[in-house]
C-alpha cells in the first residue's frame, strides 16, 4: 500500500500545484483586463477634454469677431 499512498499524495500535490498556477494565471489576466479598462477610460476622458477645449476655443473665437 505504500506505493499507492505515495502515488496518491503525489497526484494531490500535482493537482494543488496546477490549481495554484491556474489561479495565478486567472489573477494576472484579471489584472491586465483592469489595466486595459483603466487605460481606455483615461483615453476617453482625454478625448472628451480635448473636444471640450476645441469647442470652447471656437466659441471664444466667435465671440471675438
Show the helix and strand layout:
Elements: H1 2-64
Structure characterization notes:
By secondary structure, this protein is an all-alpha fold. It contains one helix and no strands. The longest helix has 63 residues, at 2-64. It is rod-shaped.
Estimate percent helicity: over 70%
Oligomer status: single chain
Helix-strand makeup class: mainly alpha
N-C termini distance:
96 Å
- What is the typical, i.e. mean, pLDDT? 94
Number of helices: 1
Rg on CA atoms, Å: 28 Å
User: What string gives the helices and strands in order?
Assistant: H
Instruction: Describe the sheet with the most strands.
Output: none
Shape: rod-shaped
Strand content: under 5%
Number of strands: 0
Unreliable residue runs: none
Q: Short description, anyone?
A:
This protein is mostly helical and 65 residues long. Helices cover 97% and strands 0% of the residues. It has one helix spanning 2-64.
Give descriptors for this structure:
mainly alpha
Amino acid at each position: 500500500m505504500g506505493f499507492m499512498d505515495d502515488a496518491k499524495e503525489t497526484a494531490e500535490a500535482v493537482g494543488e500545484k496546477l490549481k495554484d498556477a491556474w489561479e495565478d494565471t486567472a489573477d494576472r489576466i484579471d489584472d491586465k483586463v483592469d489595466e486595459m479598462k483603466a487605460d481606455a477610460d483615461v483615453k476617453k476622458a482625454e478625448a472628451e477634454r480635448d473636444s471640450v477645449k476645441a469647442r470652447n476655443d471656437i466659441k471664444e473665437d466667435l465671440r471675438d469677431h
